[in-house]
Amino acid sequence: MILYFDENLPLHLMKGFDVLQKKEGLRTGNPVTLKFIPHEFGKAAKDQDWIREIGNSGGCVLTQDINIHRRKHEMKLYREHNIGMFFLKGKSKKDGLSVWQMVETLARNWPDIIEIIYADRRPFAYEIKPIRKIKNLN
Q1: SS3 100
Q2: In the prediction, which pLDDT does 93 show?
Q3: What is the dihedral of CA 63, 66, 68, 71, to 10 degrees?
Q4: 38, 120, 121, 125: which could join 43 in a potential S-S bond, CB 3.0 to 4.6 Å?
Q5: DSSP-derived 3-state class of residue 30
Q6: Domain range list for the chain
Q7: Is the dihedral of CA 85, 89, 93, 99 positive or negative?
Q8: Are 68 and 75 in contact (CB under 8 A)?
Q9: Is the pLDDT of residue 91 over 80?
Q10: 94 vs 90, 91, 97, 125, CA distance in Å?
C-alpha cells in the first residue's frame, strides 16, 4: 500500500512518518510506503494528473487541500479512480496547523489511518482534525 503526501504538507513530516511506519508495518504486517507527490509527479503537478496516476496504483492521499472534496470535478475524479483521501484540517477554517500540531494529530490517528487504508473499500474520504476522531466524509 502507498500513502502519498500532497505538496501542501512538509516533506520532513512525510519522511519522519515513513521511518516510523516502516518499522511499525513490519511489526503489524501492514506495510505502507509513504511517498511525496512532488517527487513522484513533479512540483506543482495538477491534481487531475496525479489523481489518475495514484488511482491506477491503488494508492491513498493525505492532503490539506479540502477543496478537492468540494470541487465537483476533482471529487468525481478521485471517486472514479478509486482513491482513498485523507484531509488534514485545522480546528477551524481560519486556523491552519503548525508542523507540531500535524505531528500530534497524525500520531494520534495513525493506527486508524492504517486500518482504514487496509479495511475500507475505495473510494473513500476522511477528515482528520486535532480536536476529534477521524470523520468519514462519504
Answers
A1: helix
A2: 65
A3: -170
A4: 38
A5: coil
A6: 2-136
A7: negative
A8: yes
A9: no
A10: 8, 8, 10, 22
Q: Decide the pairing of beta strands 135-136 and 124-128.
A: antiparallel
Q: pLDDT over 90 for what percent of the chain? A: 59
* 100 band by pLDDT with thresholds 50, 70 and 90: very high
Q: What pLDDT score was predicted for residue 131?
A: 83
**Average pLDDT, whole number, for the chain?**
89
For residues 128 and 106, give the distance between their C-alpha atoms in angstroms, rounded to a whole number: 8
Cα dihedral 72, 109, 41, 13, rounded to 10, equals 130
Query: Which residues, at least 6 apart from 52, have a Cβ–Cβ distance to it below 8 Å?
Result: 77, 81
CATH class given for the domain over 2-136: alpha beta
N-to-C CA span, the chain: 21
Look at residue 110 and give its three-state secondary structure.
helix
Task: Report residue 101: phi and psi, to 5°.
Answer: -65, -35
DSSP, res 104: H
